[in-house]
């Protein structure tokens, strides 16, 4: 029986391995992590991450052909294929701080693989990495070692949070990058065979290692760029009385543009977009391509502008002051259907509001624990309230930061009655029924649309 090991039981490693175990009953899948609490959580009824359908997926194979463990060395010894999906955050120190990827966990993992391998291995880069990382990894793996052969592949993950299970089950494509050598191509074929357990062959794409590494950065940069593009136009719509949803619909019907990823918002969040664009920017600067670097950097600049613009609009609308005013922030996760708050626009929004001395109340169905951690340094300045009705009680305004489905079906009449008048709603996701809210009595401020104001 073939054994697959995954090092790093995070948002990517956990769900991906659970899917492989489910679809390939003849493969033994082991997931290891240095974080013992995380490993224990994967084996419990309270998984360390929230994803629709994930609990059922894990349950179906747990301790049958899917195993979680903290014994990294044993896992390495037993594995034929090793996925590495440890985190690669943006560097916070030294050269490239704030932009380059911090590869220390990756390198440490490579050394661990080398130290514990007694047979040939295929090592799969699952983490998003700068282009040509595989080269460094190969050198580390092979240094001073002549007996064991390591073949490094790049196999970036394109799943989106909140839809991870669906995306893994039915991916647009699976990308495998390998070397053109005979052993490289053999490794590519071995990994393709794993995915062929459930993914149609014509969606399994092969490429060179470098193209594969770059494609992951490029995909995230393009996706984020679309959001920044529509968000930039949302600012213009607000000045010109054009409606950004109408513009998005009109341009999206052009098959060359396409309709997806054109929802104007308070800004994009998530662990990947900003990190990967800054990584791309750093790479371009490294290769003296400053115009290319500046071009992509603007995508991040525009996102920060949009987040700040949202709060500035709140302040100017609410008579140029929010000091002492209770403001209920609806949603803290970076998108719906996840408890993840990494780079969530709500973080910057809450901090800005707290700086303006607003009494910020945060509510979210899944992300309250993470919100408390993210804003821990603000201490008593932020109130956390799981019930959105209670959060809105006595508030001057509601700011919608996450498009949770449940926010669409709340009893807004009840909410309106409990709020201070004039009552404002700033819909940072354009996800509510603005006309209905206006009819209840709210002053409604969407993104990129004419506001519905009673004043
Ligand atoms: C992944 C990828 O790794 C990242 O490159 C990509 O851009 C986004 O998705 P993610 O799964 O979201 O990251 O990261 P995280 O949830 O932080 O999981 C990483 C796990 O690796 C953690 O559980 C951490 O404890 C573990 N880890 C880290 C190790 O087991 N060993 C280490 O040396 C470092
Ligand atoms: C992204 C990529 O989609 C995925 O392929 C990659 O593997 C990891 O990064 P993720 O960050 O999980 O996935 O979520 P995504 O759905 O892409 O949303 C990112 C952010 O953009 C969210 O904050 C979301 O609310 C925002 N967004 C998305 C918009 O503001 N408007 C849109 O039209 C789409």
Q: How can the largest sheet be summarized?
A: 6 strands, parallel
Number of helices: 17
Order of strands in the sheet with the most strands?
A: 3-2-1-4-5-6
Radius of gyration: 24 Å
Mean pLDDT: 96
Oligomer: single chain
Q: Helical percent range?
A: 40-55%
Structural class: alpha/beta
User: Which distinct ligands sit in these coordinates?
Assistant: uridine-5'-diphosphate-xylopyranose
Measured distance between first and last alpha carbons: 71 Å
Beta content comes to 5-15%
Number of strands: 14
Shape: elongated
Uncertain segments: none
Structure, described:
The chain has 455 residues and is α/β, with parallel strands linked by helices. 43% of the residues lie in helices and 14% in strands. The protein has 17 helices and 14 strands. It has helices spanning 13-23, 36-42, 54-61, 72-78, 104-116, 133-142, 164-169, 182-195, 209-240, 244-252, 273-286, 290-317, 345-355, 368-374, 388-392, 412-418, 434-440, and strands spanning 2-7, 27-32, 66-69, 81-84, 121-125, 150-154, 174-177, 204-207, 326-330, 359-363, 382-384, 397-400, 424-427, 443-446. The strands form three sheets. It has a six-stranded parallel beta sheet, with helices on both faces. One uridine-5'-diphosphate-xylopyranose binds at residues 157-161, 220, 223, 227, 261-263, 265, 268-270, 272-273, 334-335. Residues 157-161, 220, 223, 227, 261-263, 265, 268-270, 272-273, 334-335 line the site of one uridine-5'-diphosphate-xylopyranose (UDX).
């Amino acid at each position: 029986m073939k054994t697959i090991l995954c090092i790093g039981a995070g948002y990517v490693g956990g769900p991906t391995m659970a899917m492989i175990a489910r679809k390939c009953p003849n493969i033994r899948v082991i997931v290891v992590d240095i974080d013992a609490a995380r490993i224990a959580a994967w084996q419990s009824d309270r998984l360390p991450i929230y994803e629709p359908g994930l609990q059922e997926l894990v349950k179906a194979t747990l301790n049958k052909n899917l195993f979680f463990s903290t014994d990294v060395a044993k896992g390495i010894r037993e594995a034929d294929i090793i996925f590495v999906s440890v985190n690669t955050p943006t560097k916070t120190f030294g050269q490239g701080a704030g932009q380059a990827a911090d590869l220390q966990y990756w390198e440490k993992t490579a050394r661990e693989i080398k130290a514990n391998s007694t047979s040939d291995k295929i090592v799969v880069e699952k983490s998003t990495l700068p282009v040509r990382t595989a080269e460094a990894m190969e050198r580390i793996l092979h240094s001073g070692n002549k007996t064991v052969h390591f073949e490094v592949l790049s196999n970036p993950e394109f799943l989106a949070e909140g839809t991870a299970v669906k995306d893994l089950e039915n991916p647009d494509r699976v990308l495998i990058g390998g070397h053109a050598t005979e052993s490289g191509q053999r490794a590519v074929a071995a990994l393709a065979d794993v995915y062929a357990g459930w993914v149609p062959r014509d969606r399994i794409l092969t490429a060179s290692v470098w193209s594969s590494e770059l494609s992951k950065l490029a995909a995230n940069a393009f996706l984020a760029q679309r959001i920044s593009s529509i968000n930039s136009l949302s600012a213009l719509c607000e000045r010109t009385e054009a409606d950004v949803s109408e513009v998005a619909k009109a341009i999206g019907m052009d098959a060359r543009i396409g309709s997806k990823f054109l929802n104007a918002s308070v800004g994009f969040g998530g662990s990947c977009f900003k990190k990967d664009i800054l990584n791309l920017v750093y790479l371009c600067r490294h290769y003296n391509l400053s115009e290319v670097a500046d071009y992509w950097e603007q995508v991040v600049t525009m996102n920060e502008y949009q987040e700040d613009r949202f709060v500035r609009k709140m302040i100017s609308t609410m008579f140029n002051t929010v000091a002492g005013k209770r403001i209920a922030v609806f949603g803290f996760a970076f998108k719906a259907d996840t408890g993840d708050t990494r780079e969530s626009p709500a973080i910057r929004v809450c901090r800005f509001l707290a700086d303006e001395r607003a009494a910020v109340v945060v509510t979210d169905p899944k992300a309250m624990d993470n919100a408390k951690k993210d804003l821990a340094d603000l201490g008593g300045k932020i109130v956390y309230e799981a019930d959105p009705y209670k959060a809105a009680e006595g508030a001057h305004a509601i700011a919608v930061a996450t498009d949770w489905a449940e926010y669409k079906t709340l009893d807004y009449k009840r909410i309106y009655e409990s709020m201070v008048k004039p009552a404002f709603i700033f819909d940072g996701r354009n996800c509510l029924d603005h006309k209905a809210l206006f009819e209840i009595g709210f002053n409604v401020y969407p993104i990129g649309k004419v506001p519905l104001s009673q004043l």
